[in-house]
Amino acid sequence: MEEAGGCARMGLRGVLLALALLLSVCVRASHGLTDSQDTSVLRALMDQWQNSPPTWGQSDDPCGVSPWDGVTCSNNRVISIKVSTMGIKGLLAADIGQLTELQSLYVAAEH
């Protein structure tokens, strides 16, 4: 009788472990990774700028748990970049056109 209880507990542990694994995969999928092309474009911008925002490049995922400053995402795609008050200097890379979901871009020109 005791052996059957032990098997039931082991079976329950297996089910709980499987549920925990499934939940971790679902949570990761809901946060997901930023579209790789969008990430490449942001890195190209960062490489051409002086004074790029301090959070840019600190993680591999601009839209992730710790999003990059000034970057807004929807469905793992960059939809807005707002860097007008960040003192950025440099060129706007032609790659910006590859952000196919970009809806708004706020940059300020130095006078």
TrEMBL record:
Record has Membrane as a keyword: yes
Ranges for domain Leucine-rich repeat-containing N-terminal plant-type: 36-74
Entries under Pfam families matching the protein: LRRNT_2
Keywords, sorted A to Z: Glycoprotein, Leucine-rich repeat, Membrane, Receptor, Repeat, Signal, Transmembrane, Transmembrane helix
GO CC annotation: membrane
InterPro entries recorded: Auxin_Ser/Thr_Kinase, LRR_dom_sf, LRR_N_plant-typ
Glycoprotein among keywords: yes
Subcellular localization: Membrane
Residues making up the signal peptide according to the UniProt record: 1-32
Membrane topology: Single-pass membrane protein
PANTHER family xrefs: OSJNBA0070M12.3 PROTEIN, RECEPTOR-LIKE KINASE TMK2
Protein name listed in UniProt: Leucine-rich repeat-containing N-terminal plant-type domain-containing protein
Organism per entry: Triticum urartu
